[in-house]
Each structure stands twice: as structure tokens, then as C-alpha cells.
Amino acid sequence: MANVTTAGALSSGHVRVIGASSLGTVFEWYDFYLYGALGTTIAANFFTGFNETTRIIFLWLAFAAGFAVRPFGALVFGRLGDLIGRKYTFLITIVIMGISTALVGFVPTYQTLGIAAPVILISLRLLQGLALGGEYGGAATYVAEHAPPGKRGAYTSWIQTTATLGLFLSLIVLLIVRNSMSKDAFNDWGWRVPFWLSVVLLGISVYIRLQLSESPLFQQMKAEGRGSKAPLTESFGNWSNGKIVLLALLGATAGQAVVWYGGQFYVRAFLGTLKVDQNTVDTLVALSLLVGSVGFIVFGTLSDKIGRKVIIMAGCLLAALTYFPVFKAITHYANPALETATATNPVTITADPANCSPQFDPVGASKFTSSCDVVVSKIVKAGVSYTKEAAPAGTVASVKFGGSVPIAGYDGTAADAKDKGAAFNKQVDDALKTAG
């Protein structure tokens, strides 16, 4: 194994350490991001007992749950890594991630299990978050402990590419699977295939990790008896150390998370709202991820020369200055007709505020039938932004496209609601086509 105290060229031992650590972490990120990449399909299969608004909220709450438990995974497996070593902790996290991801592909849908289906899904999502919390920090630590002086940024930058490459891999697999069968077959059972593939990736990851030796710094620390007896207390119970943790979390990591998920993950959903074909979206995002991965290596290496802080600050500043104009440009070039329609024919919903509800139904028992709810639901499903104007009490809600005549909604509980609903939907659809 490479000597961590020797500076110089990248040795074969270092290549093995970086490659094995990075590849395993790529597979873990692949598992983690499949959920987000298949969001619409998962919502249709596991949250079908709820209205569309609640369905989407629950979908992304479940996605967020995996992130919420990541810090706990880092604490648990970080402590375990200090006790039994990085190598064996790696094996535990990769097995938990691989099994929990593969099981998602076998969970029956809401139509079969009812409320138990999303409960099981979210439970598996929590296991994924715990595993990734331990894996990501552990991999960075393992590689850093092998890095010679002046090379830590360059070495650990490869670990930073794994999140991007994991998302890239998930999109490529989805493109292949989606285009190898009909749309109905994919929505019915084909979406499960990428999750089943996790079993294969798990086998590869375990084999690779078994070839690694323990970190030399960890071995030296254990041999000299310098291991911490209370690492959590020393890290968080001591203000001088806790302050550094908070600064790193809120001052560095939080900002980078906004940049990363805004630029590489949210943009995929954004392109979907612009009515861009899903295959085109995934291809564009995958290519951008591949190009962007090079930046991790370049700036990680540069940080060894000019410091980490200036790189972090420059990246966050660049994002703050460019994200709004970039997303505006994406709208312009991806769907210029929608951009023009939004500017020339703004959508306005006029309704009695007391007649409008949030349309969030966590138990799937409520019915949103007021005229305001009917109108808002239709416009939201169309993926069109709108403004809302208050109307006098008792006013039937209506929607107006630019300077056109308002289209009145209807009471969803009325005896003729079905006929009025069909007429209302046709009028709105025609107005949307006319507006562009």
C-alpha cells in the first residue's frame, strides 16, 4: 500500500485506493438517485391513494427523508469506522445500500398493499440515507488518509465526482431501459429493472472493497493507542471543535448543496415542466454531468495550490450570479413558445380566498371540489404558472388567459359536475393551445 508520508507522483497503490473508493461510492450514489430520477413513476405507483398535489409533496418528502438521516449515518458509521476501521465500515454501508435499493424493486404498489406500500418505500429510503451518510464521508476520509502532503485536494476530488457520476449512471441506465420497451411496460414493471440491477453493482462493490487494505493512518493510530475514546463528545461537546463543524456545515457544505442540486438535479425537473421530451432531458443532463465532473478534479487539484476557501467562495458566487439568467435562458431555448405565452398571456385565477384550500391531504380522504380548487388543480396539472386575485365572498372561481374572457369553474359536488367538468376542461385546453 502507498506510503502516505511520501509526496510525488501518483503510485499504483494510490490509484487502487482512489479507484476502488470512488467506484463503490458511485454505485451508492446511483442507488440513492434512482428514486429522484424515477420520481413521477414512483409517485404513480406508491402514492396513488392521494390527490396529485399531495402525491408530489409526499414523493419529495420521501426523497428528502434520505437526506435528513444522512448526518446520523455519518455519525453512526463514522464512529464505527474509528472502532473497526474504514474498510469494514465500507462493506457494511455498501451492503445496506445495495439491499435496500434492490428491495425497492420488489415492493408491491399502493394498489396491492395500500398505505403499507409507501411506508415500506420510505423505510427503505431511510436506510439508503443512513448508508450513504456513512459511505460518502468514510470514502473521503479513507482517500485523504492515503494522500501524500500537498495532494489531499487532488485525491479527494475523485470522491466528489462520485455523486455526479452516480446520477449520470442512473440516467444512462434509465435511458437504456426506457427505450428497450413500450411506455406502458416501463410504467408497469420496467421501472423496477434499474433497482434490480443494484444486486449486480453490490456484488462488484463488495468484491472491490475486499481487495483494499486498511488505511495506514488508521493502523498507525490503533497501534499507538491514539484512538478517541469519545469522538462525538470531543467533536460536538467542545465548542472550539463544534464551531468548526458548524462553520463547515453551514458555511461550506450547505452552499455547495444548493449549487449542486440546483444545477445538476433540479434542472432535470425544470426541463420536464418546459415540456421537453424525457429522453432529450436525460441525454442533456447526462452529458452536462459528464462534462461537469472534470471540474471536480481541476478545482480539487487547484485547491492544493491556492487553498480551499477561495475555491468554495468563488463557486458559490459564480452560481449566485448565473443561476437566474441561466434558468431564464433554458426556458427561452427549450420552450420559446411557453416563454412568449407566459409574457403575453399571463394566467390569472380569480377566486374567493375562503373557497381555496392548500389541497394537501396526507390521509387521502379529502375531496377538493370547490370551484377554486377545481380551477387551480387544472392549471397546476397543465404545468402553467399563474397569479391569484381575491374575489368577493361567494364568487365562482374563474381563470383568464391574458386579455381573454374568463372561464368559469364549477362546483365539483353539483349534480351536473361531470358535464360541467368536461366543458371546463375543453375550454381551458383550447385556451392553452391558443395562448401557445
Q: What does this protein look like?
A:
By secondary structure, this protein is mainly α. It folds into two domains: 12-227, MFS general substrate transporter like domains (Growth Hormone, Chain: A), CATH 1.20.1250; 340-435, no CATH class. The protein has 19 helices and four strands. The protein has helices at residues 12-37, 39-46, 52-68, 70-84, 86-104, 110-113, 116-144, 152-178, 183-188, 193-196, 198-210, 216-223, 231-237, 239-273, 278-306, 308-334, 336-344, 371-381, 417-435; strands at residues 347-351, 387-390, 398-401, 407-408. A four-stranded mixed β-sheet has the order 2-1-3-4, covered by helices on one side. A hairpin with a 5-residue loop joins strand 3 and strand 4 (407-408). Helix 15 packs antiparallel against helix 16 and helix 16 (308-334) crosses helix 17 (336-344). The chain is elongated. The model is unreliable at 1-7 (pLDDT under 50).
